[in-house]
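Practice problem: predict the structure.
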Amino acid sequence: MSESKILIVEDEVRIAEILTDYLKQAGFAVEHKERGEGVVEHVKACPPDLILLDLMLPGVDGLEICKEVRKFSSLPIIMVSARVEELDRLLGLELGADDYICKPFSPREVVARVKVALRRLKAQVEATKSEEKELFSVDEEAERISVKGTTLDLTRTEFKLLRLLASRPGRVYPRAQLVDLCAQQEGEPAFDRVIDSHIKNLRKKIARVLGDQEVIHSVYGVGYRFEIA
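Answer:
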């Protein structure tokens, strides 16, 4: 839990300060945004582990943010709002929120719900990884990855890319992060087209074993994620 990053999107500064204090005491790293503008772009560039999202925000409201984030990420979203009507709660949940907390609330309850959401996510990730182990095997020392017992013929950069993507199933990795990884491995500047080329080669090599089963998915305008359908 100590390494988990929480993004608070809340225009009431005092509430955000209280939540920040309680979350930091619980061992979380915390970021705060007061307005809705730019939140989706920030999540794409620097994905948090969970979002505490106010419903009524200046600029772009919480429902719209939730809707847009769900187009590219499954990270936990907890709605926080003074609007207690059942319709508002249902709409938030239908748009992809994982939980809904009404103001006024106990900060300790918020921290507890954050922990529950992250434990649930961890359990889902571990279950997915268990399924992957039946398909994918990573040998760190030899820098090899096998699919259904067949060792893939990977370059060092391809190995690093696939290992990173597969390390967090369902997580979207921004292009910028993958570009940096390629630049570090190849010792020279990397660009989006270099990433696309590596991903294309990885897909071809995996397809030789899995056929049409796609495991590296493109997320338009953001990057790539690894997920076994």
